[in-house]
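hey
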């Protein structure tokens, strides 16, 4: 146990339990402190009383969908067997329901505390607790390892208070609670503070569930908080989605690795261009706005992002020249993404970009249409044949002015190493093919190449069909 400068232990400790950690930071926000370890005894007791008052106020409503019943509705996901919402409470008056909650939340006197350490922080426990107080703790009804009446999990009063503070740090949607968790305490403090501020605005005036949630709202909240944070995040970041409901229990973690979080922060800091808005446009669809779709991809399936950007990039080849900045920003963002997040090394990136430039030069010199290249890309065996044929054409054309005026032809068109990177069974092979495709399209556009109208229509038709690139992404 860490100690303060005076040698006294901290009142509120952070443990290895993500729900307790988030609850502890929520408790600190309610106590108007920057960190749980700064919470004093006096402020802790005031927060405890305030949380009890909020819970009592929520039970004055019997319909969780009514304004003012936010915590009543939240209790279904956190404490379904508590005094806030057992069916018999509906038969009681508002005052009687409030008194039941007060009795549930009244701290036990120290003389009644068991001689047992807290399961989370090691302090002396103030009692034994289960599903009624701790989300996802096992119910005594299903436990056969303890005696009757023993709730099983010893907790000290501050760890217990952290669980009571947890709903203030939750986003509620569809009967499930969502928290943001990180081992970086500074970021966790920042993210929790924002959620607590949002939750406090809703307590007392609205219920948990609006009529309709926008797409990827959880993911958008997380990505926006990473972007709003003013410093690099020094750990992975997770969305933890859970419910303690009696009908179903769930614990789902959507984890973002630290390199991905760092990349999001770096893109935010880029003041020389506007790649984020370009990425949002690349992810936009008729059903899902670009900002939400981008957040969904980054949190749920970041490996899909290159393919989504690629599908947006190709039609830009046929657009007006003013799309050049858009393409440059997207290619730059994609290059940094695959390097920093998907761990494609610089040598591979440079080699693939070089092959892309040679491919584009060969297509322009030989007046190849773009459609066969797009079609070949959709299937790895066909794509490989396209490059085998291209290697032969390179030999035939390498001394012609049409090609030498565009690029240095002393290098081989494609090497065995390139083919191994692109086509041997490897989880990165599909990504390298995506990068090569983007490199070719980017170079064609940079050189002012414009396909004719028939080729343009064929390209658009091909892009709207399902292909191997989609299958590999899923």
């Amino acid at each position: 146990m860490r100690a303060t400068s005076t040698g006294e232990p901290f009142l509120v400790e952070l443990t290895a339990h993500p729900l307790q950690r988030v609850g502890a930071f929520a408790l600190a926000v309610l106590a108007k402190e920057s960190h749980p370890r700064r919470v004093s005894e006096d402020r802790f007791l005031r927060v405890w009383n305030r949380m009890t008052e909020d819970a009592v106020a929520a039970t004055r409503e019997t319909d969780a969908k009514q304004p003012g019943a936010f915590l009543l509705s939240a209790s279904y996901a956190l404490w379904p067997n508590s005094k806030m919402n057992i069916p018999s409470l509906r038969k009681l008056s508002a005052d009687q329901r409030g008194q039941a909650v007060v009795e549930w939340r009244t701290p036990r006197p120290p003389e009644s505390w068991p001689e047992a350490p807290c399961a989370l922080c090691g302090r002396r426990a103030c009692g034994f607790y289960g599903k009624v107080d701790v989300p996802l703790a096992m119910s005594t009804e299903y436990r056969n390892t303890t005696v009757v009446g023993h709730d099983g999990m010893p907790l000290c009063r501050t760890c217990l208070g952290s669980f009571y503070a947890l709903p203030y740090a939750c986003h509620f949607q569809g009967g499930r609670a969502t928290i943001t968790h990180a081992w970086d305490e500074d970021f966790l403090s920042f993210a929790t503070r924002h959620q607590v501020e949002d939750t406090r605005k809703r307590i007392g005036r609205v219920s948990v569930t609006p009529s309709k949630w926008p797409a990827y709202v959880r993911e958008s909240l997380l990505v926006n908080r990473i972007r709003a944070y003013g410093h690099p995040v020094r750990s992975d970041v997770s969305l933890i989605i859970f419910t303690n409901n009696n009908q179903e229990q769930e614990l789902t973690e959507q984890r973002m690795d630290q390199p991905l979080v760092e990349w999001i922060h770096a893109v935010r800091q880029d003041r020389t261009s506007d790649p984020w808005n370009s990425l949002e446009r690349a992810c936009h669809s008729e059903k899902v706005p670009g900002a939400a779709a981008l957040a969904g991809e980054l949190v749920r399936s970041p490996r899909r992002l290159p393919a989504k950007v690629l599908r947006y990039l190709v039609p830009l080849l046929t657009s007006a020249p003013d799309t050049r900045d858009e393409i440059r920003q997207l290619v730059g963002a994609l290059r940094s993404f695959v390097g920093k997040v998907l761990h494609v090394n610089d040598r591979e990136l440079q080699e693939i970009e070089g092959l892309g430039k040679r491919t584009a030069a060969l297509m322009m010199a030989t007046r190849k249409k773009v459609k066969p290249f797009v079609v070949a890309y959709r299937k790895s065996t066909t794509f490989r044949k396209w490059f085998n044929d291209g290697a032969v054409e390179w030999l035939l054309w390498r001394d012609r002015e049409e090609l030498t005026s565009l690029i240095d032809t002393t290098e081989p068109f494609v090497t065995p190493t390139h083919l191994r990177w692109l086509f041997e069974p490897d989880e990165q092979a599909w990504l390298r093919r995506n990068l090569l495709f983007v490199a070719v399209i980017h170079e064609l556009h940079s050189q002012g190449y414009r396909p004719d109208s028939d080729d343009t229509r064929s390209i658009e038709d091909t892009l709207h069909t399902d292909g191997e690139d989609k299958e590999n992404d899923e």
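The two ends are 45 Å apart (CA to CA). The chain has 20 helices and six strands.
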